[in-house]
């Protein structure tokens, strides 16, 4: 994920605002004429050297409506040229005199931390390091593979029993390594040979694969490199501009720092982050040694202590990077009156968060102006969920600024050999892109946009729009009754490193699928929510049936794929339910604490809260009106239906199925609902909000206001990717309805009309399709699809293609229901996908959440709203026409497998699901 830039081709990030330093936000600011700091800030990096060129640039930006720039001292002779410093200081002072707002970028390109190579210039020992691992399983055979580069820490053989290695059977294989290869004749039985080395992390990492400059990167686990980075970068800006950097800049911006322990291209071995101080800190913090008796469990299942060792390892990694990198920068910035800001790498995948940061949420909490990266300007592809995640961390810390580095990178950048034409985005799409992020918590937009074919008038309109939206919502706090847990601890216990990206941990990927399905269902059903971590749960207070964290209050807590939390968080959730709160568990039930895997105390609490649901959807209520709700894997789409019976909605929209998305904030003694049309088509309907009396509507397109709007119901018309604010002086807290025990109303299912079936496969896949496969007694499966990969590390795919002569009409469907089975022993680290192909139009893809590395049966309920336009799809209007579905494809794709690997899945007859009742509870 990285950006392009023009000319010097760097790119980066953005930054943000000093809390309280810019008063023109919320109700107090001029809505019709938004202030500079609320408008788009253009990322220019280096200022021109000449005074005349600087002044011309400032005038041009203001003519186009921009609020300011993101900048840094020239990349030429970076940080070391006095003439370049003089030009920079003059430009900063003239820009501020002219009324522009500024962000301070902290690197020569990206990723941040190198200071353009100055940090490692005299200290090569500070380079990022890792453990590199290879293993091979065999059954009474010869093992022969190349050893990873670096110093060998472990070379051992282990007997495999019940799918896990037995540490008691460990055999030292160090003597079997010759000429860079491990060659070993395994004894009788099933054995695993493993080699772990310690070496630099560079080849295949982001340091090697970014679009700016390939150079070694610093080790963020160690304090010394970051100390030096701050000395040669941040301190030099203070030397030139004074110790109060907040006088000049809204925030600093650090761009995609990481531990580098995730490969961006296929590699033969698996990485883990490492540093000389890591074993020392692990021993100090966890109380036992991080040695060769622990390390195997970080790569493979090593028995009962596996989850404990992984939990402790990643907790320590998360603590060290948050303290030694993000913490050091935050401390320095606070001493110089400027918020520390920036965004992290591979924000979209919570599985990738583990190898890159240990604890992503902990790191984001150490940013005073946390930010995200948005590399697309096609609204349907905009990663709003990253914005909500980062904005939630900011809310918990009381931060005002949340920034997005936004661009049309995905539409205009093409790698060598990619002949696709550039996709020029229009004014409406840019507006829709910003809307999606702002409704999810972003309140500052910085830009790498090309702005191709846009006039100055259009740029002025876009900047006015963004300024009005960001200014209205900046400050105050979110008002949401629902909290979704960021499942860091559960991910730790199930994560295993991968040779490419983070795709060899199927159990962790399952958690990510549940998490994404959960938040998507809330987003499309106008259920605003916050993302919280275990620390927030432990710190929250209980007031009646609410969890209270500062000014934030939640009636419902959702646990997506969560089975592990610190005991303090479990205890808080247990007391919360007993006091009348609701906890919803999706996919998994509570099982483990930070010290016990499993924990008898946690399991007792799980039975108290959820009963014994097995694989059935269920509600277990208590006399206080609280309860535990359990939804098994694949049924996450039922969550809105469950919530309708537990919690009055904060906003009601008619018609109910609509592209309306919303957030609610309390700003400057007013309650503000930001309502967006997340669609390229006009929308009109009836809206009511949980407010009292009358209020006003604010139009971000014109800056106009309409008074006398009734909270109980008002008509609203929105243009394509349009929006409006509804502002009221007071709000009514939505009612929490008492939980009622029993099973949850399900879906009305009907079979998909039969048609013809065929296989669609990649060039390097040989495949077969068997119809009418017999499963368990009485179970008839529709198809068995088997593919054998013929070449390693190439993109492979295999889909069962279901077609009808007259096309499928899915207009009455709320979801597709897919029953599947994976054979025992299959470990394929990819997931089952479903594609809807329009007749003569576009393809739309969704993830079923079904891992092809987890054996057994699973039902997947795939909501129609989860289908997104596929990246390879031909150009179209971006709106799925459900009445003209040419074919339905179910299978796997984008998988870089191994030659000779076989991937099998079985499908039951596909069904169409209709929710029995979508009506929300009525108000009083």
Task: Summarize the structure in short.
This protein is α+β, with helices and mostly antiparallel strands. It is built from 20 helices and 47 strands.
Description:
- This protein is α+β, with helices and mostly antiparallel strands and 924 residues long.
- It has 5 domains: 26-123 and 203-263 and 341-474, TIM Barrel; 129-200, no CATH class; 482-644, Rossmann fold; 651-728, Golgi alpha-mannosidase II (Immunoglobulin-like); 747-915, Jelly Rolls (Sandwich), CATH 2.60.120.
- The protein contains 20 helices and 47 strands.
- A hairpin with a 5-residue loop joins strand 25 and strand 26.
- The longest helix is centred in the middle third of the chain and has 30 residues, at 306-335.
- Residues 1-24 and 918-924 have low confidence and may be disordered.
In percent, how much strand structure appears in the residues? 25-35%
Q: Which stretches of 5+ consecutive residues score pLDDT under 50?
A: 1-24, 918-924
Average pLDDT over all residues? 93
Strand order of the largest sheet: 1-2-3-11-13-14-15-16
Number of domains: 5
Percentage of residues in helical conformation: 10-25%
The 3D shape can be described as globular
Please give the largest β-sheet: 8 strands, parallel, barrel
Briefly note the CATH topology name of the largest domain: TIM Barrel
Number of helices: 20
The CATH class of the largest domain turns out to be Alpha Beta
Q: Architecture of the largest domain, according to CATH?
A: Alpha-Beta Barrel
The chain-level structural class is: alpha+beta
Radius of gyration: 27 Å
């Amino acid at each position: 994920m990285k950006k392009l830039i023009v000319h010097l081709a760097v790119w980066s990030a953005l930054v943000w605002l000093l809390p309280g330093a810019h008063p023109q936000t919320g109700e107090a600011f001029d809505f019709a004429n938004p202030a500079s700091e609320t408008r788009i800030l253009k990322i220019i990096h280096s200022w021109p050297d000449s005074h005349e060129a600087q002044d011309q640039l400032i005038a041009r930006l203001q003519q186009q409506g921009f609020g300011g720039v993101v900048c840094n001292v020239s990349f030429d002779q970076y940080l070391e040229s006095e003439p370049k410093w003089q030009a920079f200081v003059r430009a900063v002072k003239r820009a501020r005199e002219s009324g522009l707002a500024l962000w301070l970028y902290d690197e020569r390109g990206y990723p941040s931390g190198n200071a353009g190579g100055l940090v490692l210039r005299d200290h090569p020992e500070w380079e990022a390091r890792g453990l590199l691992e290879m293993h091979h399983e065999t059954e009474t055979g010869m093992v022969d593979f190349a050893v990873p580069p670096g110093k060998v820490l472990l070379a051992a053989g282990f007997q495999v029993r019940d799918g896990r290695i037995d540490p008691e059977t460990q055999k030292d294989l160090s003597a079997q390594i010759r000429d860079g290869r491990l060659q070993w004749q395994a004894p009788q039985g099933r054995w695993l040979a493993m080699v772990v080395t310690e070496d630099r992390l560079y080849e295949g990492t982001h340091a090697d694969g970014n679009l700016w400059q390939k150079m070694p990167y610093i080790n963020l686990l160690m304090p010394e490199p970051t100390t030096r980075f701050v000395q040669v970068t941040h301190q030099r800006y203070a030397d030139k501009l004074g110790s109060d950097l907040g006088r000049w800049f809204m925030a600093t911006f650090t761009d995609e720092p990481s531990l580098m322990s995730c490969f961006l291209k296929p590699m033969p071995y698996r990485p883990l982050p490492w540093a000389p101080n890591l074993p020392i800190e692990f021993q100090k913090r966890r109380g036992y040694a991080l040695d060769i008796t622990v390390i195997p469990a970080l790569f493979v299942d090593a028995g009962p202590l596996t989850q404990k060792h992984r939990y402790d390892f990643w907790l320590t990694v998360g603590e060290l990077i948050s303290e030694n990198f993000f913490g050091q920068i935050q401390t320095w910035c606070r001493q110089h009156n400027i918020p520390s800001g920036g965004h992290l790498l591979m924000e979209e995948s919570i599985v990738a968060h583990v190898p890159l940061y240990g604890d992503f949420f902990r790191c984001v909490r150490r940013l005073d102006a946390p930010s995200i990266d948005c590399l697309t300007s096609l609204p349907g592809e905009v990663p709003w969920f990253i914005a909500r995640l980062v904005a939630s961390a900011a809310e918990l810390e009381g931060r005002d600024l949340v920034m997005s580095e936004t661009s049309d990178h995905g539409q205009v950048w093409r790698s060598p050999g990619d002949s696709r034409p550039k996709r020029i985005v229009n004014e409406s799409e840019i507006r829709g892109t910003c809307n999606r992020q702002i409704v999810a918590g972003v309140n500052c937009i910085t830009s790498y946009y090309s702005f191709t074919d846009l006039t100055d008038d259009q740029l002025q309109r876009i900047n006015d729009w963004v300024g009005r939206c960001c200014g209205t919502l900046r400050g105050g706090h979110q008002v949401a009754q629902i909290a979704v847990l960021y499942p860091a601890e559960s991910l730790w216990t199930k994560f295993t490193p991968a040779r490419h990206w983070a795709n060899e941990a199927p159990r962790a990927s399952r958690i990510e699928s549940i998490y994404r399905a959960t938040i998507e269902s809330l987003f499309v059903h106008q259920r605003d929510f916050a993302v919280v971590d275990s620390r927030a749960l432990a710190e929250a207070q209980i007031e009646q049936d609410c969890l209270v964290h500062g000014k934030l209050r939640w009636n419902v807590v959702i646990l997506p794929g969560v089975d592990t939390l610190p005991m303090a968080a479990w205890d808080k959730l247990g007391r919360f339910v007993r006091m009348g709160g609701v906890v919803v568990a999706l996919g998994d039930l509570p099982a483990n604490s930070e010290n016990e895997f499993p924990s008898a105390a946690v399991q007792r609490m799980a039975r108290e809260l959820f009963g014994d649901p097995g694989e059935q959807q269920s509600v277990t209520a208590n006399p206080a009106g609280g309860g535990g709700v359990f939804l098994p894997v694949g049924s996450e789409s039922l969550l809105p239906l469950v919530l309708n019976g537990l919690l009055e909605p904060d906003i009601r929209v008619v018609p109910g199925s609509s592209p309306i998305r919303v957030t609610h904030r309390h700003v400057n003694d007013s309650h503000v609902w930001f309502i967006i049309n997340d669609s390229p088509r006009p929308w009109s309907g009836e809206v009511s909000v949980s407010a009292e009396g009358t209020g006003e509507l604010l139009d971000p397109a014109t800056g106009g206001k309409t008074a006398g709007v009734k909270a109980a119901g008002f008509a609203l018309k929105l243009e394509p990717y349009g929006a409006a604010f509804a502002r009221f002086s007071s709000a009514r807290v939505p009612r929490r309805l008492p939980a009622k025990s029993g099973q949850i109303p399900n879906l009305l299912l009907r079979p998909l009309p039969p048609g013809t079936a065929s296989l669609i496969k990649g060039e390097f896949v040989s495949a077969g399709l068997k119809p009418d496969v017999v499963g368990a007694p009485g179970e008839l499966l529709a198809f068995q699809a088997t593919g054998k990969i013929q070449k390693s590390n190439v993109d492979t795919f295999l889909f069962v293609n279901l077609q009808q002569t007259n096309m499928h009409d899915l207009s009455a469907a709320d979801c597709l229901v897919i029953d599947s089975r994976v054979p025992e022993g299959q470990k394929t680290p990819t997931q089952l996908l479903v594609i809807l192909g329009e007749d003569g139009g576009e393809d739309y893809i969704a993830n079923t959440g079904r891992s092809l590395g987890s054996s057994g049966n699973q039902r997947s309920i795939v909501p129609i709203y989860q289908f997104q336009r596929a990246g390879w799809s031909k150009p179209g209007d971006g709106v799925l026409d459900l009445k003209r579905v040419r074919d339905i494809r179910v299978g796997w794709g984008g998988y870089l497998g191994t030659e000779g690997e076989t991937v099998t899945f079985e499908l039951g007859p596909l069904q169409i699901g209709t929710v029995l009742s979508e009506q929300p509870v009525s108000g009083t």
